[in-house]
Amino acid sequence: xxxxxxxxxxxxxxxxxxxxxxxxxxxxxxxxxxxxxxxxxxxxxxxxxxxxxxxxxxxxxxxxxxxxxxxxxxxxxxxxxxxxxxxxxxxxxxxxxxxxxxxxxxxxxxxxxxxxxxxxxxxxxxxxxxxxxxxxxxxxxxxxxxxxxxxxxxxxxxxxxxxxxxxxxxxxxxxxxxxxxxxxxxxxxxxxxxxxxxxxxxxxxxxxxxxxxxxxxxxxxxxxxxxxxxxxxxxxxxxxxxxxxxxxxxxxxxxxxxxxxxxxxxxxxxxxxxxxxxxxxxxxxxxxxxxxxxxxxxxxxxxxxxxxxxxxxxxxxxxxxxxxxxxxxxxxxxxxxxxxxxxxxxxxxxxxxxxxxxxxxxxxxxxxxxxx
Length: 372
Description:
This protein is an all-alpha fold. The chain has 15 helices and no strands.
């Protein structure tokens, strides 16, 4: 397959980026962020026009632009679940685009603009903390965290963990050639054990994080009560790091300290990186979600043994699992940007290799037990 000219690739990618940012601006509830997304969309559309002009100058045949399945999926997700769901993916796209532009002749001022976009996405998703120019800060000071996107990625990986681990378990037991419904019992046991373990681990993780955050916020509240002057200085430094002049920052900090609740909220967010109103989300919600996501993946290799036995059930189990692995591989491309066929087949390969290894080990162990 002939490799497409970099100019045409840049043109198509900029058209896609413009569509994504335009969609985000339309569904974003915070008007300040919506305006940021809209401005980036206009800039990306301008970049696309620049690359289109360059392509025509060089006599390149410009293909008709149509959103890929990945872009259409991201648009759908943004419209139905909010922009925060796709922010981590957008962030990765911007970083890739910035890296690629530095190697492109004729990119000109677009390199700086792409770097600015990447920086904005880092700030909005909370990946970095640092200074922004005042005009930008005014629009995104209530920045979003990337919880939605991370949750979606965790959902895919949780289902994958359940599928691969239980497929390996089922194949290991099937390889041992145990009689009756042993494989089904082992598979269901593995599903429940794995799902409960995932749920408990997630509950403990979120609960521990919440307790840590609560302790840190309590410490910060004590410091506000006992050392208000030092906290004013800290607030002032935070404002200065955002591009505000020192004298203005000091005035703002002093005014904010008159409302200790507001000061605590700001210090918690900026100094500790904690949202006092959220504290990492609900531990029970995280636990229940983890349980069902793991079980969703783990049920695929087990289900055939409910209706069939022997090698027939093994073959159908492998077939079900192969389809599931391929679908999960496709889902992962939403975050990685790799080709659908590559990601899907890679996931299938890894999953089936693990299953084959455990089947072989189970067969050896089963033969040794029956021989003994």
